[in-house]
Amino acid sequence: MPACRTFLKHCLVRPFWTQKLSRLSPPERKALAPRTLNVFSLLTTARVKLARTYGEILPSSFGGVFALAPAGRTAFVDIGSGDGKLLVAAADKFEAVVGIEKYRDRVATSKQNLQSLPEEHRRRVTLIEADCNDEDLSESLVAFTHGWQLLLFCNNVAFPAGLNKRLAGNVLRLMQVWPQNVCMVSALPLDTLASFFVQEVPFHTSWGTLHVGNVYTSSTVPQVSIAS
Ligand SMILES: C[S@@+](CC[C@H](N)C(=O)[O-])C[C@H]1O[C@@H](n2cnc3c(N)ncnc32)[C@H](O)[C@@H]1O
């Protein structure tokens, strides 16, 4: 089924919408019957939703990611936290948990999912509604993680190359200024961090696929002054 979904998204929905509609001039678009436009907008909505949410890590793989936490007090951060299921599970293991999610509807779903937690665990979780690349991670995280060691997870399997590049630069900067160890796990490799790669971690996704995540650690990153 995953192959079928990928085929639909990349071969049918995307070309149909982007190519057909972009070729029309504004007057031609206006001339289209309203019902046709509705179909176009439905397809767009479906495509945007697919692009935002597919490929979530499955609960059976949560433990493998959490096990990468460095020994000692560690905060867990999910960059692109989706519907917050990983945050809910992390709140059971980590005393500080942060989710950064760009889309408001995902944040709203996360808030609902977090309601399932006992109050004591729910208080450990902070949701930041933001584009992870607009954030200065060191600034936004320090307030919610007490400056502890960090275990960052990013299921960036659907992130475009440009976004991944900026993410890698952002995480490198974080690693350089953070006073404690930072461990980063990303589904797709982050080239900028290549020299800090330590191991791979397999995890299953909702597509039914097995991904090999990449683990990077700051223990070998040269530190720079925060002021630089
Ligand atoms: C594959 S889902 C991962 C969800 C969850 N972390 C998991 O692994 O199950 C990727 C998430 O990243 C979010 N996302 C995409 N671009 C983002 C960005 N620039 N900043 C923050 N979140 C982003 C998407 O909305 C989506 O919820």
From TrEMBL:
Gene Ontology MF terms: histone H3K79 methyltransferase activity
Domain DOT1, residue spans: 52-170
Domain of life: Eukaryota
InterPro entries: DOT1_dom, SAM-dependent_MTases_sf
Pfam families per record: DOT1
Protein name in UniProt: DOT1 domain-containing protein
The organism's taxonomic lineage, starting at the top: Eukaryota, Viridiplantae, Chlorophyta, core chlorophytes, Trebouxiophyceae
